[in-house]
Amino acid sequence: MGKVGPRKLAAVCYDHIGGALGESLYDAIVRKAWLSADSGELRVTAKGRRELAALGVPVDELDSGGRKPVNACVERHAGMFYAHIGSHLGSLLAAALVERGWLERSGREFHVTASGRRGFRRLGLRLRMTSTLPR
Protein backbone atom coordinates (compact mmCIF):
# COMPACT_ATOMS: atom_id res chain seq x y z
CA MET A 1 0.00 0.00 0.00
CA GLY A 2 1.40 3.40 -0.99
CA LYS A 3 1.90 6.42 1.19
CA VAL A 4 -1.13 8.70 1.46
CA GLY A 5 -0.44 12.34 0.62
CA PRO A 6 -1.79 15.32 2.54
CA ARG A 7 -5.46 16.13 2.34
CA LYS A 8 -6.29 18.95 -0.06
CA LEU A 9 -7.47 22.23 1.37
CA ALA A 10 -10.24 22.68 -1.19
CA ALA A 11 -10.83 19.86 -3.64
CA VAL A 12 -13.39 19.72 -6.42
CA CYS A 13 -15.80 16.88 -5.65
CA TYR A 14 -18.07 16.48 -8.69
CA ASP A 15 -19.30 20.12 -8.87
CA HIS A 16 -18.99 21.12 -5.21
CA ILE A 17 -16.33 21.86 -2.57
CA GLY A 18 -14.59 18.95 -0.88
CA GLY A 19 -11.39 18.78 1.12
CA ALA A 20 -10.78 20.48 4.46
CA LEU A 21 -12.61 23.63 3.32
CA GLY A 22 -15.70 21.64 2.30
CA GLU A 23 -15.74 19.92 5.68
CA SER A 24 -15.31 23.24 7.55
CA LEU A 25 -18.09 24.89 5.52
CA TYR A 26 -20.41 21.97 6.29
CA ASP A 27 -19.60 22.15 10.02
CA ALA A 28 -20.10 25.94 10.11
CA ILE A 29 -23.39 25.83 8.21
CA VAL A 30 -24.76 23.12 10.51
CA ARG A 31 -23.49 24.94 13.63
CA LYS A 32 -25.15 28.19 12.47
CA ALA A 33 -28.44 26.28 11.95
CA TRP A 34 -28.57 27.05 8.23
CA LEU A 35 -29.32 23.34 7.79
CA SER A 36 -31.45 21.04 9.90
CA ALA A 37 -31.77 17.28 9.91
CA ASP A 38 -35.47 16.40 9.88
CA SER A 39 -36.05 12.64 10.00
CA GLY A 40 -32.39 12.16 9.10
CA GLU A 41 -32.67 14.26 5.93
CA LEU A 42 -30.89 17.59 5.56
CA ARG A 43 -33.02 20.65 4.79
CA VAL A 44 -32.11 24.31 4.39
CA THR A 45 -33.75 26.36 7.16
CA ALA A 46 -35.41 29.75 6.67
CA LYS A 47 -32.36 31.33 8.34
CA GLY A 48 -30.12 29.32 6.02
CA ARG A 49 -31.99 30.55 2.96
CA ARG A 50 -31.51 34.17 4.05
CA GLU A 51 -27.81 33.76 4.90
CA LEU A 52 -26.99 31.72 1.80
CA ALA A 53 -28.80 34.26 -0.39
CA ALA A 54 -26.65 36.99 1.23
CA LEU A 55 -23.59 35.02 0.04
CA GLY A 56 -24.97 35.06 -3.50
CA VAL A 57 -26.40 31.53 -3.54
CA PRO A 58 -29.59 31.47 -5.67
CA VAL A 59 -31.59 29.56 -3.05
CA ASP A 60 -34.79 29.88 -5.10
CA GLU A 61 -33.22 27.34 -7.50
CA LEU A 62 -32.76 24.67 -4.80
CA ASP A 63 -36.09 22.97 -5.41
CA SER A 64 -35.99 23.18 -9.21
CA GLY A 65 -34.53 20.58 -11.49
CA GLY A 66 -34.09 16.92 -10.84
CA ARG A 67 -31.41 17.10 -8.16
CA LYS A 68 -31.84 16.53 -4.47
CA PRO A 69 -31.75 20.00 -2.81
CA VAL A 70 -29.04 19.13 -0.26
CA ASN A 71 -27.21 16.17 1.20
CA ALA A 72 -23.99 15.39 2.98
CA CYS A 73 -21.44 14.08 0.52
CA VAL A 74 -18.72 12.01 2.18
CA GLU A 75 -15.10 11.72 1.11
CA ARG A 76 -12.49 9.35 2.45
CA HIS A 77 -8.87 10.28 3.11
CA ALA A 78 -6.29 8.22 5.00
CA GLY A 79 -8.97 5.91 6.37
CA MET A 80 -11.11 8.76 7.77
CA PHE A 81 -14.47 9.95 6.45
CA TYR A 82 -15.31 13.64 6.06
CA ALA A 83 -18.70 15.21 5.23
CA HIS A 84 -19.22 18.23 3.03
CA ILE A 85 -22.24 19.81 1.32
CA GLY A 86 -23.28 18.00 -1.83
CA SER A 87 -26.19 17.87 -4.27
CA HIS A 88 -27.77 21.02 -5.63
CA LEU A 89 -26.83 23.28 -2.69
CA GLY A 90 -23.20 22.15 -2.91
CA SER A 91 -23.09 23.04 -6.60
CA LEU A 92 -24.83 26.41 -6.14
CA LEU A 93 -22.61 27.31 -3.16
CA ALA A 94 -19.40 26.48 -5.05
CA ALA A 95 -20.51 28.55 -8.06
CA ALA A 96 -21.50 31.49 -5.83
CA LEU A 97 -18.15 31.48 -4.00
CA VAL A 98 -16.28 31.43 -7.32
CA GLU A 99 -18.49 34.27 -8.60
CA ARG A 100 -17.91 36.21 -5.35
CA GLY A 101 -14.15 35.84 -5.87
CA TRP A 102 -13.54 33.79 -2.72
CA LEU A 103 -12.44 30.74 -4.71
CA GLU A 104 -10.77 30.09 -8.03
CA ARG A 105 -10.95 26.70 -9.70
CA SER A 106 -7.87 25.07 -11.15
CA GLY A 107 -8.44 21.54 -12.42
CA ARG A 108 -9.50 19.33 -9.50
CA GLU A 109 -8.81 21.96 -6.83
CA PHE A 110 -10.24 25.22 -5.64
CA HIS A 111 -7.78 27.86 -4.47
CA VAL A 112 -8.80 30.27 -1.73
CA THR A 113 -8.19 33.92 -2.60
CA ALA A 114 -7.25 36.67 -0.15
CA SER A 115 -10.85 37.88 -0.31
CA GLY A 116 -11.96 34.33 0.43
CA ARG A 117 -9.67 34.06 3.46
CA ARG A 118 -11.31 37.18 4.90
CA GLY A 119 -14.81 35.97 4.03
CA PHE A 120 -14.31 32.51 5.47
CA ARG A 121 -12.93 34.03 8.69
CA ARG A 122 -16.11 36.14 8.95
CA LEU A 123 -18.10 32.91 8.64
CA GLY A 124 -16.12 31.50 11.55
CA LEU A 125 -13.94 29.07 9.62
CA ARG A 126 -10.50 28.39 11.06
CA LEU A 127 -8.31 26.85 8.38
CA ARG A 128 -4.63 26.88 7.64
CA MET A 129 -4.97 28.53 4.25
CA THR A 130 -1.92 27.11 2.50
CA SER A 131 -3.52 26.63 -0.90
CA THR A 132 -4.15 30.20 -1.97
CA LEU A 133 -3.66 32.49 -4.91
CA PRO A 134 -2.55 36.10 -4.37
CA ARG A 135 -5.17 38.80 -4.86
Q: Give the spatial strand order of the biggest sheet.
A: 7-8-9
Model regions low in confidence, pLDDT < 50 over at least 5 residues: 129-135
Radius of gyration: 14 Å
Determine the N-to-C terminus distance.
39 Å
State the domain count: 1
- Report the total helices: 4
Task: Summarize this entry quickly.
This protein has one domain.
Structure commentary:
The chain has helices at 19-31, 46-54, 87-99, 114-122, and strands at 12-13, 16-17, 35-38, 41-44, 71-77, 80-86, 103-106, 109-113, 132-133. It has 135 residues and is α+β, with helices and mostly antiparallel strands. The protein has one domain. The strands form four sheets. A three-stranded mixed sheet has the order 7-8-9. A hairpin with a 2-residue loop joins β1 (12-13) and β2 (16-17). The longest helix is centred in the first third of the chain and has 13 residues, at 19-31. It is globular, with a radius of gyration of 14 Å. The termini are far apart. 31% of the residues are buried.
Task: Annotate the secondary structure layout.
Layout: E1 12-13, E2 16-17, H1 19-31, E3 35-38, E4 41-44, H2 46-54, E5 71-77, E6 80-86, H3 87-99, E7 103-106, E8 109-113, H4 114-122, E9 132-133
Parallel strand pairs: 8-9
Antiparallel strand pairs: 1-2, 3-4, 5-6, 7-8
Which features characterize this protein?
135 residues, 3-stranded mixed beta sheet, 4 helices, disordered C terminus
